[in-house]
Design goal:
The chain is of the alpha+beta class. The chain folds into four domains: 2-140, Glutaredoxin (3-Layer(aba) Sandwich); 180-331, Alpha/alpha barrel (Glycosyltransferase), CATH 1.50.10.10; 351-489, Glycosyltransferase (Alpha/alpha barrel), CATH 1.50.10.20; 494-578, Glutaredoxin (3-Layer(aba) Sandwich), CATH 3.40.30. It has 21 helices and ten strands. The chain has helices at 2-16, 38-47, 61-71, 74-83, 95-98, 128-140, 165-177, 194-205, 209-222, 251-267, 271-288, 314-331, 334-350, 370-387, 390-406, 433-450, 453-466, 469-472, 479-488, 504-515, 567-578, and strands spanning 50-56, 84-90, 108-112, 118-123, 248-250, 298-300, 307-309, 493-498, 521-526, 548-552. Strands 2-1-3-4 form a four-stranded mixed β-sheet.
Length: 579
């Protein structure tokens, strides 16, 4: 009976939408909640009690509702009193815990046996009416619920550049199946998803008219999620026609939307997309930017109205930097570039580790975490691209070396989510899919900038993991894996401006190179007074008439370009030649 109720309740709450968590101070200080720790599990074993964990997030309205209606309910507390130890976990601050259960939404409720065995996993809001029967049945029958196998066995480390033809066809067929031809977007509950938007923008740039129509419809209708007051974009709509924003303003959604709208404004020459980018950038600048550099984590404006979560994490700061730089590359807004540089300086100063890499917060209980280092690594690499300053490439390489020595699983080639065990009772460390994709893409582009073969090998080993059963058997919607494959199998667009950095003509050419609407792009600014480029793989000729830009492949370069407006045509010509 308990098994039926657990699954029924999960189904009901899925229909109600996902949620998030709140500040621990909002939950009361009556001793009800214990901390996530080995000591808590040791106490559970000693007292022969279950551990029931509530995973929440600051911006999540259903988390507020469950705290108010369920966890504070006297009948619920009466059942919990003698048999359970309630544990509160803020999922934003503990990626080592939350990434195990991110498929369960927020709030997620996990019941463990005294020895740490997972018994029940519940998705979303549970009222007392549904939670109490689950608790009682767990006491009577503590055998674990069988949720099925979400992925096949891990395979040995394999170097790969991508999927097989049947694997790719299956992913593409599913993406086509779930596309909403009426409203745009993919699936009924539409998330602001950067990889999906990036994949279809790339297909559109390559001439795919169907992809162009789909991404335009999606971006146009997605504007309904941009809040009229703050300018931030809600991470999800609760209705397929985009008419019910969740009022949950996570940083990953701001990065994804800002990047997509900035790029689309140039790619489709659309002022409405530029206006959308302006609004989201304004939200980051005026609402989520911290006064001393860095960015706040998120904002929530639904039930509970927690407002801005002013905790500052390296992960979210890295995501914000990437979005702001995408905006700068398109607009040339110097204030945006300064905002990104100030944030990077803050992250290096306040979250940087001596050996490279980044902490999540001032003190990591279960870290360091892959997400912080890879998001900041990608941000530093993009900062090098946006400025032409080699110091940012050096910082990105130091971060990459930390990732390689800290998070790599030598058996599979994948990347662990956390460097240290999160609790001795839990199973082996996990590998989170999205962070593995980001890491593969980071190493792939970094190898082009540095010429380092070992970064390329790390990317291919990570791709081997992404094309293995733990990923392909567990997920059907994988535009992020398609993006990683696309980048591993192709050269990045490569434009180099040869000219003094204090020459306005050089600056104009470099701005033209940055504006080209592709994310997989290697833009370099070579001022010969600074010495050689880090990866001097092209012998650029001297051009006596002043600064010039060159669009290159590994085999040949364009003629020198002295007019920024002519750069896109030269790049397009080379792209056609590569096909």
């Amino acid at each position: 009976m308990m098994r039926f109720l657990a699954l029924l309740g999960a189904t009901l709450t899925l229909l109600m939408g996902t949620a998030h968590a709140v500040d621990r101070n909002d939950l009361g200080n009556d001793g009800f909640w214990s901390d996530w720790s080995d000591a808590t599990f040791e106490r559970a074993a000693k007292e022969k009690k279950f551990v029931i964990v509530s995973l929440q997030s600051w911006w999540c309205p259903w988390c507020h509702a469950m705290n108010r209606d369920t966890w504070a309910n006297p009948d619920v507390r009466a059942v919990l009193k003698d048999h359970f130890i309630p544990v509160y976990v803020d999922q934003d601050s503990r990626p080592d815990v939350s990434q195990r259960y991110d498929r369960w939404g927020w709030p997620a409720t996990i019941i463990f046996g005294p020895d740490g065995t997972e018994i029940v996993k519940l998705r979303g809001f549970y009222s007392p009416q549904f939670l109490i029967p689950v608790l009682n049945e767990t006491i009577k029958d503590p055998s674990p619920v069988n949720y099925g196998n979400l992925g096949g066995p891990e395979q040995e480390r394999t170097l790969s550049t991508g999927l097989t033809d049947p694997q790719r066809a299956e992913i593409l067929a599913f993406m086509d199946k779930v596309y909403d031809r009426t409203n745009g977007g993919w699936t009924k509950s539409k998330l602001v998803d950067g990889p999906t938007l990036g994949w279809f923008l790339g297909r559109a740039k390559a001439g795919d008219k169907d992809a162009e129509a789909r991404v335009k419809l999606t971006l146009t209708n997605m504007m309904a999620l941009i809040d009229k007051q703050s300018g931030g974009i809600s991470q999800v709509t609760l209705k397929p026609d985009w008419s019910k924003p969740s009022m949950e303003f996570s940083m990953f959604a701001q990065q994804a939307a800002l990047t997509a709208y900035a790029r689309a404004s140039v790619q489709f020459d659309d002022a409405a997309y530029r206006a959308a980018a302006d609004r989201i950038y304004g939200f980051l600048k005026t609402t989520l930017a911290g006064p001393g550099g860095g960015f706040y984590a998120s904002m929530g404006e639904a039930d509970g109205s927690p407002g801005v979560d002013k905790r500052q994490y390296a992960r979210e700061t890295g995501q914000a930097i990437q979005g702001v730089l995408a905006y700068y590359d398109v607009t040339g807004d110097k204030a945006a570039l300064k905002l990104a540089i100030d944030a990077a300086d803050w992250a290096l100063r306040e979250r940087g580790l001596p050996a490279g890499g980044f902490r999540h917060t001032a003190e990591d209980k279960g870290g360091p975490y892959l997400a912080d280092s890879v998001e900041m690594g990608a941000a530093l690499l993009e900062l090098h691209r946006s400025t032409g300053d080699p110091k940012w490439l050096k910082a990105a390489a130091a971060d990459a070396n930390f990732i390689a020595t800290t998070f790599v699983d030598p058996k599979t080639g994948g990347y662990f989510a956390s460097a240290s065990p999160d609790a001795k009772n839990l199973p082996k460390p996990i590998k989170q899919r999205e962070d593995n994709v980001t890491t593969v893409r980071f190493f792939s582009l970094l190898s082009s900038y540095t010429g380092e073969a070992r970064y390329r090998e790390l990317a291919e080993a990570g791709m081997g993991y992404l094309t293995s059963p733990p990923i392909l058997d567990a997920y059907a919607f994988l535009p992020d894996v398609l993006l990683a494959e696309e980048e591993l199998r192709n050269e990045p667009v490569h434009v180099t401006v040869v000219g003094a950095k204090d020459d306005p003509r050089s600056a104009a050419l470099y701005a033209g190179a940055l504006k080209y609407p592709l994310s997989f792009k290697r833009a370099e600014w070579w001022d010969k007074r600074e010495g050689k480029l880090t990866n001097a793989d092209v012998d650029y000729p001297d051009y006596p008439d002043g600064p010039a830009a060159f669009a290159c492949t590994r085999n040949f370069c364009s003629l020198p370009v002295t007019d920024a407006a002519a750069i896109p045509a030269q790049i397009d010509r080379l792209q056609r030649a590569l096909k």
